[in-house]
Task: inverse folding
């Protein structure tokens, strides 16, 4: 089974999140983002998206 979040690495729109923490939902995409993890978590909790439905990731500035 393919990782439901594999699209994130192929999506050119992800460039705007370089250097940020992101919360990813398999159908809604990025539902919260911030440079600091605690700020991203605050945004995520405010969004009302259940934490069980998301994956947290860090989008590196580097392609490696």
Result:
């Amino acid at each position: 089974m393919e990782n439901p979040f594999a699209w994130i690495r192929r999506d050119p729109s992800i460039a705007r999140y370089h250097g940020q923490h992101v919360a990813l939902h398999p159908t809604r995409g990025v539902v919260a983002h911030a440079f600091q993890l605690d700020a991203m978590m605050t945004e995520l909790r405010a969004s009302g998206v259940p934490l069980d439905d998301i994956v947290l990731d860090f989008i590196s500035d580097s392609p490696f």
